[in-house]
Amino acid sequence: MKKSVNIITLGCSKNLVDSEFILKQLEANDYTVKYDSNDKTDVVILNTCGFINDAKEESIESILNYVDAKKAGLLDKLYVIGCLSERYKEDLQRDIPEVDKYFGVNNYEEIVKGINADYKKELVGERVITTPKHYAYLKISEGCDRTCSFCAIPLIRGKHVSKPIEALMAEAKYLVSKGVKELILIAQDLSYYGLDIYKEQKLSELVEKLSNIEGIEWIRLHYFYPANFPYTIINVIKNNPKVCKYIDIALQHISNNMLSKMKRNITKEKTYKLIDDIRTAIPDIHIRTTILTGHPGETEQDFYELLEFVKNSRFERLGTFTYSEEENTYAGDEYTDDIPDDVKTKRAEQIMEIQQNISAQINSEKIGKILKIIIDKTENNYYVGRTEYDSADVDNEVIIKTDKKLKIGEFYNIKIIEASDFDLIGEVITS
Predict the structure, then answer these.
(1) Looking at residue 379, which CATH number applies to its domain?
(2) Which residue from 76, 108, 140, 222 has the highest number of Cβ atoms inside 10 Å of its Cβ?
(3) 417 inside domain
């Protein structure tokens, strides 16, 4: 009988891509493969996250739950991979020895061989797509060369390593052959792409080449770093109809005091200019950003500047997270975690209250407009889709109730008839 394996992925979309590559290898080894399934399988591979305390706790809780399932005879083997086990492998082996083996990151071959399967080099670049088949993530680089005070990612994932353009083109063509129409480019730092292997920023060239692949209709860009931003990408977004008018750029803060303490290598003034330059060139751009509250040394004045920044910039999409001390980071070693947790949380909530109103206003401005929508799924007798201004799983959705039969993964012209704080309601426009 075939062995069965279930890969559970915690954390970000970059982890998800890792899981997809491993699934393909195991499928080729005659495993029955499942993803995030509740079904009983012989083997479970848990792909963990170790970015912040909440993510670590979720990962550890999941490991313990599967250890219990193994003890109860519900699975034969349990393997743990990913960021948590990369960073805390020795501790985990000591404290939770019931796991059959722990692996880190960045080495699919070691993981596949480590669970007694053959690593098939001819399948490099091929994946089992676990997202709806019309969109997929394309991880264009690994690791990060930045030195942000609060971030442990370089400690976990290592230095920035760009994947060559030729390899990414081959991977994208493979994804298109499986039905993918929307490529979501991801990396810890899109801004840096190419500098290590080509000695210059190459994101714009990569995006233009990807857009020439027949079958790709949308290209979406995630996770820019604001310092040394690749300005040539602005014209690509503006002029290439396949590139969504959407950009995800993690700004984290605005006060010069905090940007310095965070080691972000950018100033308040340059941040405002970058946003203004993007919006001037692309008036309908939708910017997603992330804000960090409660970093050591954040004063009331710093936070007031941050609130004003959020109010003035009117980001279409914004998320927040609170500072958690990470050992061996600059902030963990050099600063005292001097902001109480309740203050951190309150500050994050204040920002999100402001953002909720901004989002409601921006959504209301879309009422009456006809937008191109991709249909992702059905839910409660509704179709659920997205505009080019919305990324999968993290942004607004468009809810469509219709008697017409719509196809998942197809594009439709939808007239927006209602808006809530974070979603839109639309109706199908008949041609």
Answers:
(1) 2.40.50.140
(2) 140
(3) yes
Note the pLDDT tens digit of each residue in 384-416: 999 999 999 899 999 998 988 999 999 999 999
If asked whether residues 152 and 238 sit together in one domain, one would say yes
Residue for token pair 């959705």:
397
Is 129 domain-assigned? Answer: no
Predicted local confidence at residue 116, as pLDDT:
87
pLDDT digit string, tens, across residues 177-189? 999 999 999 999 9
Residue 380 CA, chain-centre distance (Å), reads 27
Is 376 found in the same domain as 354?
no
Closest CA to 278 of 221, 319, 208, 217: 221
Structural domain includes residue 126: no
User: Do 41 and 6 meet the contact criterion of CB atoms below 8 Å apart?
Assistant: yes
Q: CA 285, CA 59: separation in Å to the nearest integer?
A: 36
Sequence-distant (6+) residues with CB within 8 A of 168 are: 138, 140, 206, 210
**CATH code, domain with 30:** 3.40.50.12160
Give the pTM: 0.93
* Burial readout 258-290 (b: 16 or more C-beta within 10 A, e: otherwise): bbebbebebebeebeebbeebeeebeebbbbbb
Tokens of 9: 């992925």
pLDDT attached to residue 21: 94
Determine the structural domain holding residue 339 and report its residue range: 135-364
